[in-house]
Each structure stands twice: as structure tokens, then as C-alpha cells.
Amino acid sequence: MASISSLGIGSGLDLNGLLDQLYVAERSKLEPIGQQIESQQVKISAYGELKGALSAFHDATQALNENALYQSLSTSISGDAVQAAADGEASPGRYDVSVDTLATAGSIATQRVDGLDTVLTEADSELNLTFADAELNQRVTIEAGSTLQDVRDAINADPQAAVNASVINDGSGYRLALMSKQSGSDATLLATDFAEMASDATLTDVTIAQAGQNATFSVNGISIESATNQVDDAIQGVVLDLQSTGQSSLLVEEDTQPAREGIDSFITAYNELKSTAGRLTAFNGEEGQAGELIGDSTVRIIESRLRSDLGNELGGEEGYQRLDELGISLSVDGRLELDEQKLDAALAESPAAVGAFFLGADEADGLAGRLDATLSQLLDEDGALESAVSGAENRIESLGDRYQLMEQRIDTTIARYQTQFGQLDAMLAQMNQTSAYLTQQLGMLDAQMGGGMSGQ
């Protein structure tokens, strides 16, 4: 509000100062509304913090609802003959692997050509590639005027040619080297008609061929043959990568570490949620400070539903039925406490039984599935948390309307005061003028009366 500098000139009163004081007094009526708006904004921020902690617990809960978590296997190997990896279909056990030969790819080096610029074909022709497995046989089109490098490029550009081609200098000339893309005896390249195709060039020496071979090895004394060194069907659920000839022992064991880490994350996430809720609803009597959500019903609803899910039995007939049977219990302050030895013993005895407790028969009716359903409802757009945020936003909007209306009323009131003060200033100015006139007239009258008396 801008002060009117002319106020008070006529009366001599500090009407501008008085009007400013009235303006401040009227504006103070807005403070309670502003404080309420700020309170609701703080609540929305607190709800966001609570939602973050709730979402983190939801993520940890969903991780416990994964079947693979309780079927993890680890492999340990002694010896350099093989490397291995196991999946959920593998069976724990010891496997002795003896590698006799590794799978290799066959190759052929063609007859020697004197120079790289030697033209091999004057007309379009074909290079026939013949394999041990006739299904791999292929004819590669070679254009007229092709050199050895052109033949190489044509072979490599043909997606159906089951070889990789290169040019090798053997010290006396150049050869086309063809290596089978696949290892094993069936993928061996037996022959080419390179000499017939390159009939326009002078070729020397002979074709050099090296046959491909299968890998031969044994697992626990059982002989196995494979066209490749990566074998995924010798031991169910185990991929063997043959590295060298020799002996290796493979030990496949149940790995409880992923399940243990998942449960630890679950406990940590819940306790952090509990700490966040506790801080937001706490009251510090010594400092007189209250949490942003103290007494908030939404927090009570969330805590009550989660406490119910965590504390109730599953209701099954077999296996674990309560968290405390796994060494996880609710403490007096509502946090989860862990008996590490009890949990480790349960995982060591039967990871599947621990998994059944969290997963349930159909990955929906275990503890993790039950919590997942509850948390999904709480975090849903129509859930308790979003409803609370929407309620706070609606109150802010309503309070904003009240604030605006109150400002308009204050401006109207101050405008009325200003008009009245202007009228008062004018009236007092007129009264001052009248008073001065009367004082002047009375002075003159007094002077006249005094002069007359002295003449007598």
C-alpha cells in the first residue's frame, strides 16, 4: 500500500503513519491463513519423503518375491581344463571332467598365386566349397577380373559361406586361406575347386588342408563328444567351457548369499521406513518441536497395515508360518530385528523352504506377495498416501482462495480508511481555518474595545 503524502497537511496530524499502522494490522489477519498454507505444503513434502521410504520397501519386498533368489547355485573349479556356470536347473554335486581333445575348426590353404594383382578369372565363375556336412556346401559367385583379394572379399560377403577367408603370404607367394566358421569334424571344409576357378592364372604348390575335430571329454567317467568347446547339454543346468586338455573337478553348490542379501535389504528398507515415519510423527517436548505428520491418520493406517502383514501367520499347513521362525521379529519400537544365526541356519537347511515362506505356492500368497499387494494399494493413485496428498493440495487451494478474498477485503478497508482520513483532514483543516479567523476577529474586537475605553 502506497502512503498518500498529502494526508495530514490540512490537519497537521500524522495520518499517513496512522494509515500505515492500520494497513499492517489488517495484513496480520492473513498470517494465520499463510501459516496454514505453509503447514499443508510441509505436509505434502513429508508425504513425499514417506512415499520414497515406502517405495524403497516395496522394491525390497518385490525382490523377495522372485523364485530365482532361492535357487541360486555357485560353482567352484579346481584345475584349468574347464570353466563352468550353473543355472537354476542344475543339481548340486561334484563332477570330474577329463578333456582329451578340444574342438577345432578345419581349414584349407589353396594353391599359391605369385602376386596380389594377378587376375584369376576373365569371366564370371563360381568357387565351390565342399564340407563334411553336405548341408554346408556353397557356391560363391566370383566376378570376372577378380584377384586373390577380390575372391577373399566375395567369400566373406556371402552370408551362406560357412568359412572366413583371408590372404596369407607364405614367403614364396600368396594363398587363399579358408577357415570353417564352426568347429568340429562335420564342419570341416574338405575341398574347393580353386584351381578350376582360377584357370587363367599360374598356380603352384598344392592345397594344404587341416581337418576340424570334435572335442572329446568325459564327465564322471562317461565319454562325451561335442562339435564345440562350449557344451550346455552334458550336465543339466551347467554350461561347460572346455579350455585345455587335462583334468578338472567341478563342484556345484547351493548359494544362499543372494537370498540372505535380499532378506537383509528387506529388513533394512522396513527399518528405514519405520525411522522415517517415526521422525515425521515425533514430538520433542524439550524443544517444543513437532514432526510434520504428528497425529496424521495416514501414517497410522500405513503402519497398522504393515504391522499386521508382518506379524500374522501365513495360515499354511507346512513350512515356516511366521517371520520369527526365521529369526526375524518385531521389536517393541516396531522395528525388525534379526537373529543372524537362526536365519543362516534356516537358509543352510533348506533355501527352498525359506523361499516358500516368502513366495507362497503361486508366488502371490507368501509373505512377500501379501506385502506386495498391501504396498501396491498404499502407493496406488487412489491409495491412502495419494489421497492424503490430494487432500492437502485441496486445502491449499481453498486456503489460497480465502487468502485472496481476505486481501481484497483488506484493500477495500484501507481504501475506506484513506477516504475517511481525507475527509477528516479536510474537516480539521476547515476547523483550523475557522478557529484562526475567529481568533483574529476576537483579537481585533479586543483591540477596539481597549482603544475606546482609553479615550473616555
Question: Can you walk me through this structure?
Answer:
It is a single chain. It is elongated, with a radius of gyration of 47 Å. The mean pLDDT is 86. The protein is an alpha+beta fold and 456 residues long. 26% of the residues are buried. The protein has helices at 15-27, 31-64, 148-157, 194-197, 257-280, 297-311, 340-349, 351-359, 367-379, 384-455; strands spanning 73-78, 82-86, 93-101, 107-109, 112-113, 125-131, 138-142, 163-169, 174-180, 189-192, 203-204, 208-210, 215-219, 222-226, 230-235, 238-242, 246-254, 283-284, 289-290, 328-330, 336-338. A hairpin with a 4-residue loop joins β8 and β9 (174-180). It has three domains: 31-68 and 258-387, no CATH class; 73-102 and 215-254, no CATH class; 107-210, no CATH class. Strands 1-17-3-13-14 form a five-stranded antiparallel β-sheet, with no helix packed on it. It has a four-stranded antiparallel β-sheet with strand order 8-9-4-12, covered by helices on one side. Strands 2-16-15 form a three-stranded antiparallel β-sheet, with no helix packed on it.
